[in-house]
Prior knowledge:
Number of helices: 19
CATH architecture of the largest domain: Up-down Bundle
Largest sheet: none
Radius of gyration: 22 Å
Shape: globular
Mean pLDDT: 85
Order of helices and strands: HHHHHHHHHHHHHHHHHHH
Number of domains: 2
CATH topology of the largest domain: Growth Hormone, Chain: A
Structural class: mainly alpha
CATH superfamily of the largest domain: MFS general substrate transporter like domains
Number of strands: 0
Amino acid sequence: MSIACGGVYFTWVSPSLPRLTSDDSPIGTTITLEEGSWIASSAFLGGILGSLIGGILMTKIGPKQCILSSSIPYFAGWIIIILTKSPVMIIVAQGIGGIGSGISLSILPIYVSEIGDKDIRGKLGVLGMALVNTSNFIVLAFGPFVSYAALALLCSTFPLVFLITFYFVPESPYYLVKIGKKDAAMSNLRRLASGNVDEKNIRLNLEEIENTIQYDIENGTTLKELLTKENYRKSLLMVMGIKLLRAFNGTPAIDAYKQTIIESSNSMISPGISSIIFGLVPILAALICAICIDKIGRKLLITVAALICAVGLVAEGAYFYLQETNMDITSLSWLPTAGLSIYLFCNTVGVATLSNIIVGEMFATSIKGIAVPFFSIISSIVNFTVLKFYEPLSDVWGRYTVFWIFATVCILGALFVLLVLPETKGKSFIEIQRKLNKKSENI
Length: 443
């Protein structure tokens, strides 16, 4: 729900931006394309600050309370959007919402990996994304058909629901052991066992957690060591590659500009209906991914999905190229919605969903508290870059060129995953580190 609250900030832009840039703007002022690009991208700037805050808060109040605190900027941003008539304040509000998203994304992979058994880590991450896609569907399904204010009011209910429900979720046993609350950690381990309580296994799990925490204390790591030590070099390469693939394959830009893209394509399928389709497709994709991830594995899913994403993007670019050359493409007017649907489906099955899971799996627990917030900041920076320059580059080079660039990144990313990324399905954190650092005696 926490990531869903952040996702809504980015999805809200898709049905709202065409209204804000129209002559009949709901805030009484028609915003410029430049202001529109800032509205679409400013949440990622807030994400940079949120990631820094999350990294600091987690060590002081624990992952649960840290994630819970994200509801404050989430809710505050929507209140500003509902009340303001100023484009600048909408940009500020998006940035405030991005702070909540930065907090969530910098902490949640750690939290999920600490409360979930290795056999279901993938499913937990994917089912979380399924809920994100469900919230996005609500926004995309209602957005074109309700008023601007009503949509913002609807979005403001998400952080309230999250605040109420997440309050009752257990704290990470790792954090409880770290602060000396061993009995509370035992209690939470029993609760997380969900009825399948085996006291012997609970004690073994607690012992493993204590050993891990002791290792973390003895091998405390700094950001400088993360960036320079040989032990972390492969993990850095893997995660950086996945994060760059997720950003430069067009994920942030297409998520924000879906409805604008369809409106400019003169598709036979209306923007409103296309918006509903774009909301439903990722839900179906996330459910399929949840079924396949712990059977097929991360590596194959990302590789195949990225290649099919490239097909959808090439087709999308070809349509806009033919449109720009004034060819009769009436018979292909179904292609814009179909191409984006193929892309959204495969991107959800592969890169967009699994990137956060891989970040939580690639680093040893002793460095994870630094690594995950660090890469959350990197993600915010590259996502902001892609989103901020998508519209200006589309105007200069043509929308088709940008789609073909995204497709090229998908192909290069698939090769990277196939040749470099190790499979982490069903492996413990120690097993993953041993595989990454075969020559390292420290592991």
